[in-house]
Amino acid sequence: MKLKSFVLSALIAGAAVASQGAAAQAIERTVPLVTVGDGVGGFNAHFGDTFAASTVGRTFSDIFTFNIGSPFDAAASITSSYLNTPQTKDLLITGFSLYRYDPSAMTMLGTAIAGINETGFGSHPADSWSLSAYDLVNGYYALKVDGQVLGAGGGAFGGDLVVSAVPEPQAWSMLLAGLGLGMVGMMKRRKPVLQKI
User: Which residues have C-beta within 8 Å of that of residue 159, sequence separation ≥ 6?
Assistant: First the structure.
């Protein structure tokens, strides 16, 4: 009888440890961004995630992927919600970054462009992060948001990405040539006409 109760106790203890391990697992998601073209080679996109009450205490790492076929500048920002869980901030965002991305291996490449934590001060402020990147080459990229769910009701964050195409060097040279021709034409028009007496 003692052996059966010992085995039963061991099984219950093992199940409790396994359930704690499952609850502590990180939430990892990879989602392609839905983009809306801006008509001049860039795009805008909205992204975010919502976490249920059952995820309290778990860390998360969300990856939002996109690609662009020309050199570009990018700016992005995120903000977490604040559901006013008593004495607790709902989400703690610990990182926001932009990486090169390999879609076939589903991995991040190289060094990240790190976001800036602009979270205010005071009692449990909502998180606010931003990042900017300039003259990036065409290819695949990923925005990565890291954090932890703290609130009893879960939590949420949302963000925006703006990608602007950078003109090719040929476009700049054509623009400068056109500007130069315009200046020459304007100078010719302003040249005073001398009259003979």
Answer: 46, 47, 48, 76, 77, 78, 79, 143, 145
| Contact (Cβ atoms closer than 8 angstroms) between residue 35 and residue 43 | yes
Residue 61's SS3 state is: strand
Q: Which tens digits make up the pLDDT trace of 143-194?
A: 999 999 988 888 899 999 999 988 765 554 555 556 666 666 666 666 555 6
What is the per-residue pLDDT across 37-63, written as a single tens digit (0 to 9) for each? Answer: 998 889 999 999 999 888 988 999 999
Q: Which of 42, 35, 59 is nearest to 144 (CA)?
A: 59
pTM of the model: 0.72
Topology of domain 25-169, CATH: Jelly Rolls (2.60.120)
Let me know the angle formed at the C-alpha of 69 by 67 and 74, rounded to the nearest 5 degrees.
Answer: 60
User: What 3-state DSSP class applies to 119?
Assistant: coil
| Nearest one of 168, 163, 170 to 33, comparing CA atoms | 163
Q: Using alpha carbons only, how large is the chain's radius of gyration in Å?
A: 27
> How many C-beta atoms lie closer than 10 Å to residue 158's C-beta?
14
Cβ–Cβ < 8 Å for 142, 80: no
Per-residue pLDDT, 143: 96
